[in-house]
Amino acid sequence: MAKFIVPKEIFHGLGSLENLKEIKGKKAVVVTGGSSVKKNGSLGNTIAYLKEANIESAVFEGVEADPSIETVLRGAEFFKQEQPDVIIGLGGCSAIDAAKAMWVYYEYPDSKLEDLAAPFAVKPLRNKAVFVAIPSTSGTGTEVTGLSVITDREKGTKYPIVSHELTPDIAIIDGDLCKSMPKNVTANTGLDALSHGVEAYVSNIADRYNDALAKDAISLVFKNLPTVVENPDNTEVRQAMHDASCMAGMAFTNVWLGIVHSMSHQVGGTFGVPHGCANAILMPNVIRYNASATDKYNDLAALFGKKTAEDFATEVEKLRTQVGVAPSFKEAGVDEKAWEEKLDTMVENALNDPCTLFNPKKPTASEIKAIYRACFNGVAYAE
Hints:
With 383 residues, the chain is an alpha/beta fold.
């Protein structure tokens, strides 16, 4: 028996931000990152639409990339002061992930990050507020997922908080918000969306509901990502990528992810490699590793008129090259000595990451280490 959980309402299409005028509430806190949502007008439009809905608003800004627990705690304190009944995550994945974690601490102030990172440890939410997610990047799908990734910088570790309680109540998928994304961010986030579709499709609890979303999201990324990287003002293609990200998010939040993400979380937390870039480097070799445990990569190869997992891994590598993402962690700027010093810790943390539970093949420490080393040097993994 299985269940399928998504936000209560998903508004999608160019101009769909306007649906904020329909929401109910008295006070909203809008959580954002840097200045991009100000420059592109989406923050101003959000506040204006809330005003039309007779909702007062306050803004918590300055969420950094890979949001830290310190930022989350500051945000929770801001919530305590403002007492919102609507929380809005506006911007990239970092802003929305941070807002989700702030929501947890707002409702449960005594929470501990390490405890929240245990599978499904989040207590029932919506005692004080509902959650609206409005992404301005097309990659994570966090607007429809029960996932928030928070970094403990002292430990150099990313903690994924996994619970359907974190699934937003409302998601707004408006490609107009993505027009100001730089080329490298467009490429990295697009490949992140691809990794979500791929890992959801081969999850060890995958089902036909999620397979349909995952497979179509994968197809949309291959068809549209090269175009939007080269032609960022093409709003129709922007919307297609935004839809792909959301669809992949709906798939993976129900069947979860695999070791691409378990391993990527460690590389990002330790070396600051952008998440989508890390996923793109890891994905082809994880496909090669998992191929002996599932034949579902063959289905994905068939999208290109091909037959094998190796064919599909090669197509991912081609797309990665086409959009200008590094093929190895060495070329992404990671120091080899530091890599080897941290490798055992990354392996241990990857094995303990909740995403590992849903990988189609149960890895050993030595296998994880071999994949890491192959990806550091940009060579094909072979058993």
